[in-house]
């Protein structure tokens, strides 16, 4: 029995390890240090919003969940364009479009949360948002010039 468990764990681990590449094939996006930090800050804001939505929903607080969703809405790109417009021109078009879509999705999620849509629909929307995040992180990497 012990050997069966050990073999099963080894096979499972080796399958998982094969999915992790040692090569970084992502497309580089070259930014200044300040621009990179700004872009990473925006991504952290996405995570903070998601975390806030999950925590609020765990308490059945749809109003607070909507508030957290909107923190990553369309107000963010407006602020970035005002503080550092050059960064927008340096991003690949697909990255820009995906980022704008995510901001719109957060605003839409905020509206839906205010209307207290069913939790399974909220989870589908959250899954669509995080799918965009995963795609972007698998596709691009920041490099400092």
Give the biggest sheet.
2 strands, parallel
**Helix content range of the residues, please?**
over 70%
Mean pLDDT: 89
Number of domains: 1
Elements, N to C (H/E) = HEHHHHHHE
Biggest sheet, spatial arrangement of strands: 1-2
**What's the end-to-end separation, in Å?**
56 Å
Morphology: flat
Low-confidence stretches: none
From the alpha carbons, calculate the radius of gyration and give it in angstroms. 19 Å
Quantity of strands, as a count: 2
Strand content: 5-15%
Q: Given the helix and strand composition, which structural class is it?
A: mainly alpha
* Count of helical regions: 7
What is the element layout, followed by pairings?
Elements: H1 2-19, E1 27-31, H2 33-58, H3 62-70, H4 75-83, H5 86-90, H6 93-114, H7 119-139, E2 140-144
Parallel strand pairs: 1-2
